[in-house]
Request: fold
Amino acid sequence: MNVLEIMEQRMSFSFEVFPPKDDQPLEPLLDTLEHLYKFNPDFISCTYGAGGSNAGRNVEIVKAMKERGKTIPVTHYTCIGNTKEKIKKELQGYLDIGVDHILALRGDFPKGWEGTRGDFNYANELVEFIKTNFPQFTIAVAGNPEKHFEAESFDADIAHLRMKQDAGADFIMTQLCHDVEHYEWWVDAIRKAGIFLPIDVGVMPVLLKEPTIRMAVMNGSAIPRDLAEIIGRYGDNPDDFKKAGKEYTVKQIHKYINAGIDGLHIYALNKWRDVTDILNAAGIRKMSE
Reply:
């Protein structure tokens, strides 16, 4: 069963992890995965760095997940620096190790870059290429409830999402959005635009003050009043901030579920202990032994 088929039956549940740098060991992340597997995730996605940095570690991780057989591995893949021939070789490499789910992205430009420096400039072009040459893949694409910061308008951003759907995407994975009410507005807007794909909502745990602010700024994401109050009240006390942040994340998960999402995707940040606390408090997934 692929992720799309799971979403057609029920709300999917998943995690995102990121690979270590090339000079760091894999074992800590492999240990983290063992703890995440206890929540029986439907899939786990694995990122890699800007411009394809540590992409080799990404392959090692998704291969390890496939061999472990506990979940569906989903690889991230970007247009950055990738020619058609390189893409063909690398996608065939994923299929050869049994990985047939992919999040197709344009990708963030590395510092100093003004374009992708590859054969494709937009994610919809990559999606069409994958669909045409490798129909075995289940393809996810990114959605931005608060608009991609480079898009001129919501209309333009939603139009690009429609193009990714029409190119052959199977489901949407959202970028960071703390504002659930705004997410609901966005869903109405994309449905009116004829975008019918199921939506997997990404939730980033609130654990530390500086990363919470930084990630919101980097993604052009608003900080709602209740989160701003936590930052203002507990920002100078890391322990109290983490406690309040976990409680905030639990409430956010419940709000999203009540909004009728097709999938819940937890950005695990490679921190299984904190994620375990949040999920146990949320009561949405029972751990297995």
The beta strands are 12-17, 43-46, 72-78, 101-105, 138-143, 171-174, 199-203, 263-267.
